TrEMBL record, chain B:
It comes from Streptomyces chengmaiensis. Keywords: Cell membrane, Membrane, NAD, Oxidoreductase, Quinone, Translocase, Transmembrane, Transmembrane helix, Transport. Belongs to the complex I subunit 4L family. InterPro entries: NADH_UbQ_OxRdtase_chain4L/K (IPR001133), NUOK/Mnh_C1-like (IPR039428). GO terms for molecular function: NADH dehydrogenase (quinone) (non-electrogenic) activity. It is a multi-pass membrane protein. NDH-1 shuttles electrons from NADH, via FMN and iron-sulfur (Fe-S) centers, to quinones in the respiratory chain. The immediate electron acceptor for the enzyme in this species is believed to be a menaquinone. Couples the redox reaction to proton translocation (for every two electrons transferred, four hydrogen ions are translocated across the cytoplasmic membrane), and thus conserves the redox energy in a proton gradient. It is an enzyme of class 7 (translocase). The keyword Kinase does not apply. This is NADH-quinone oxidoreductase subunit K. It catalyses: a quinone + NADH + 5 H(+)(in) = a quinol + NAD(+) + 4 H(+)(out). NDH-1 is composed of 14 different subunits. Subunits NuoA, H, J, K, L, M, N constitute the membrane sector of the complex. The keyword Iron does not apply.
Amino acid sequence: MSASAVHSLWTTAAQQPVDSIPAPHIEYSQLAPMLIVVGAAVLGVLVEVVVPRKARYHSQLFLSVTALAAAFAAVVGLAATGHGTTKVQIAAMGAIAVDGPALFLQGTILLASLAAVFTFAERRLDPRAHGKHVDSFVAQAGSVPGGEGEQAAVRAGFTTTEVYPLMLFAVTGMLVFPAANDLLTLFIALEVFSLPLYLLCALARRKRLMSQEAAVKYFLLGAFSSAFLLFGIALLYGYAGSVSYARIAEVVDGSVRAIDPALAQTMGNDALLLIGGAMLLMGLLFKVGAVPFHMWTPDVYQGAPTPVTGFMAAATKVAAFGALLRLLYVVLPGLNWDWRPVLWGVAIVTMLGGAIVAITQTDIKRLLAYSSIAHAGFILAGVIALTPDGISSVLFYLAAYSFVTIGAFAVVTLVRDAGGEATHLSKWAGLGRRSPLAAAVFAVFLLAFAGIPLTSGFAGKFAVFKAAAEGGAGALVVIGVIASAIAAFFYIRVIVLMFFSEPKPEGPTVAVPSPLTMTTIAVGVAVTLALGVAPQYFLDLAGQASGFVR
Amino acid sequence: MNPVNYLYLAALLFTIGAAGVLIRRNAIVVFMSVELMLNACNLSLVTFSRMHGNLDGQIVAFFTMVVAAAEVVVGLAIIVSLFRSRHSASVDDASLMKL
């Protein structure tokens, strides 16, 4: 590169002094959902500091539920005034897109988090410790498992109410992630939702060593993948000379008008674009848990406290697929001849890999983890379609999948023996005879995962495969159907195990939860059946929301 | 000096960091390797910023530093709690959950 191509940035800046920096224009009302949640998260930290220990649980729960509900109301308000359809716009000086997919996914994330926060707050499942109610979270995270400090903390009745602000911070990041309209916002949102999740994973009350191990694995692999994402961002910035999605898209498809010498040189370097795009994709595929970036999923899902697993499995997937959609449909459509074959391969190995490895699992949480990997593959098939139908089917699938997941993990928290949750599959034998209701509800969720008609899973899978077939990915649909059949085998196997085998004498019991977890499970079942029996309204909604702002 | 050399250096640092993550066994060292990767990203961002003559890359680099600091806080908390319960920070010892 010649020296003339290098701008004398500092000397020109010195020659033309600026007398005032113009204030940025921020559309607060359009950003209200995110601002409400982040405000509540900050307030939650304050509550930890000033409110006495006894009152913290109730104030934190009230604050979280209010904030999530208010943010959802704000999303509905924005959608009702046409911000998702006719008045789409880019807010906050180009950082945040307010459009259909963003609002739809934000609404989904908020509702899913609202359902998940009830399972966080459940305090009737664990037996009382020294006469005090306890939840799924450790008494004091800093204490050594089984040590003096932990016993003292349990005796004193400590609870980790910090989980609520941590969750709200994570939700903030997830709300921004699918709406991010430049690479910097994308990266910051990713970190804002990842860092609280790493911590939440380490906070289980029972099986703490496993929980800490899960957190370390998630953290190290997550940090590794976000470093790849950041290097991808650096290379794409180097290619296009800007981090804005619109600008990068222009440079990628060659419609950019003003080309300075530096841009002309970097634009000619396809290696920057291809390697940068690949690394960016790698970071996002890690978050959605697609093969070959799925290694963390089973361990983290198994080790994390089950309410956190449900929250993370649902909301992270929604947010990450939102960001992936926007990246592929807005920034890199000009490159689709390059990324589609790659994603074809990833989708195939994800669908088949997740479904086949799940058959060998003996732990219900690991089984659901591998099932989530297989589902990531099905959703990828919709992403590959590269049509408006592809967007709307993915949106619908994500909404359907998130409620099934949260409901299923909420049922897992109920099945307990002396050691806490009984997650080994052999212990679930004959559960249907001992407590038919819990087993029946779990069966509904498993059928939805398997994609049996009259459940949301069928409507979602049908929409995604239809979009993929129309988008020219017929072979992918065939493989997807085969993978669904393999997956149906192990879902049905669990149902058979629950209903048609003899209960073990010292098997687990199903604890009777408080109305909180009951609400979560009821919402899960209701959404699963509603989206399965009458999907048209929601498909139309997703269809209306399928236009990205550019 | 030709700024492209800095890009080569950044790619080299990133590779060293990635190799460190894959090869080293101590969680702290693995984590330090991740930080090296983030610093390699910063170097390339600043170099590209200089080449293009706009400040976007430098802004991103600032944010990356803040994110790296936040990551240290969270990461060290997790690794220290693992060390206190196991008296080992080796990522190979943490293997309660295996297929």
